[in-house]
Amino acid sequence: QVQLVESGGGLVQPGGSLRLSCAASGFRFRGYTMSWYRQAPGNERELVAIIDGIDSTYYGDSVKGRFTISRDDANKKIYLQMNNLKSDDTAVYYCKASIGSGAWGQGTQVTVSS
Fold first, then answer.
1. Which end of the chain has the smaller Cβ count within 10 Å, N or C?
2. What is the mean predicted confidence (pLDDT) over 56-80?
């Protein structure tokens, strides 16, 4: 079955960087749109970034210019490079595959704090 496993979260100071990874299995991966979402306590889940099958990308306004989404089709992974992190970026980050009704990973916690 489809499985998505996120990794790379942690505690980082404001202004720092983190790189999240999402490893996919159980489907072809190449050609599928993949995305990152995040959810902070008390907030709805929000879209962070999307990358489609031809590497076109889209970013939420709050992360434009700071975050970069990329994919490695050979290894069935996507990445989220996060730079100049702010306290407002603190959230659980989820990987999503646009397959069927959508498949989600379990999430990885990112905490930005001094």
1. N
2. 97
Distance CA 32, CA 102 (A): 11
How far is Cα 16 from Cα 28, in angstroms, rounded to an integer? 34
Which three-class secondary structure string do you get for 53-103?
A: CCCCEEECCCCCCCEEEEEECCCCEEEEEECCCCHHHCEEEEEEECCCCCE
- For residue 87, give the nearest of 114, 58, 55, 112 by alpha carbon: 112
Residue 57 pLDDT level (bands cut at 50, 70, 90): very high
Distance CA 78, CA 67 (A): 13
**Pair of tokens at residue 49:** 């970034």
Is residue 51 within 8 A of residue 36, CB to CB? The reply is: no
Read off the pLDDT of each residue in 18-47 and give the average, rounded to a whole number: 96
**How far is 61 from 99, CA to CA, in rounded Å?**
25
Q: In which residue are the tokens 């489609």 written? A: 52
What is the C-alpha separation between 106 and 114, in angstroms, rounded? Answer: 26
Query: In this predicted structure, what is the pLDDT of residue 45?
Result: 96
